[in-house]
From TrEMBL:
GO terms for molecular function: 5'-3' DNA exonuclease activity; 5'-3' RNA exonuclease activity; transferase activity. Residues 55-116 form the Polymerase/histidinol phosphatase N-terminal domain. InterPro entries: PHP_domain, Pol/His_phosphatase_N, Pol/histidinol_Pase-like. Keywords: Transferase. This is Phosphotransferase. Gene3D superfamilies: Metal-dependent hydrolases (3.20.20.140).
Amino acid sequence: MKPFRAWVWVGKGLRALVGLVLLLVGWAGFFTFAASYADYPVVPPASEGPRWPRGAFHVHTTRSDGRATEAEVAAAAKAAGLHFVVLTDHNDFTPREPVFVDGVLLVQGVEISTAAGHLVAFGLERPLEGVHKGMDGGETQAAVARAGGVSVLAHPVQARNPWRHEEAARRAEGFELYSADTFFRNAVRHPFSRLLPAVGAWLGQRVHGVMLLVEPDEGPVTKLLELAREKPRLALCAHDAHGLPGYEEVFQSLAMYLPPREDGAALPGDARAAAEVVVEGLASGRALCAFRALGEPEGFSLEGVDAGRREAHVGDVLTVRLPPGAREHVRVEVRGAGRLRPDGVSVDLVEEGAVQVEAWVEAPGRFFGSRWRPWIVPSPIRVLARGVGR
């Protein structure tokens, strides 16, 4: 009798498991079906005008914990229409020259695992000396500065591995405002409501599946604006690509865009000269992040600000110039020391601090319908008191 009862319970358990699997497959299937109706890009590309050099920032290969070799990453970048990739393998301190692979420029950077979190360094003019995994975050940031590099706080408010050294945070030049890997990790923490819909959508249209992972929260922008009160900061969108989701799909979904070159060329043909253009462009504060699955950012500008210093004053008015044909299904988002006027494109600077101005798009939603998502993301503007620094 007891063996019979045991088999009954085993049978019930298997039926419950099969039922759960079918439920999950069916739930994901709804989003697979809906993905076939998702239309990208939301904003059509401009027919004229120079194309801006675009690339991926914060990418991992098999030199650390990525799933692809450098050649495979370059192939994925080429397929996605990128011009450059900034490689940032974990604790890879071996100096390497920039190189074109399959027409894509690979620029060496590094993501350093410190005792205070992860720090990305790029544009190093000299080798990092005395830096090692687990080093104090402040000492690591100082070493990057001595080597002539740009330090960027990697996923600084991520629940799994945030940045925890306040002094170094105030000294760092860059801040990863949006992170594709963080979006993915946050979805894993909500498997039924966020991960399964994205997986289902990915089966129907891969870029749509990646875009469904994009769920911004206020934590990163609040911290960025706090830091930008002291000095202008670089806001970067990080792919933090490891190969899951796939490199090509992530590269198709977002990119960093450099200021357009006077000669109209994407990058110089010499790898060293091209790397200088990439580093200077990313470090200038004039580079833009764009979720390019929604549309290309060419034609966007933020007027009324000192472009070199990324500063303005209380009482100034910023004007957002959107790409041609981008008014429908687009809105300007303002956070911090600015207030959006009723015209939807003018921003009054009302107090000292910092202001973040972004263009958002009404994008395809999880099932049918739509949802507002970030599209074009410039670096924040530091807002000074009237008359200061004029």
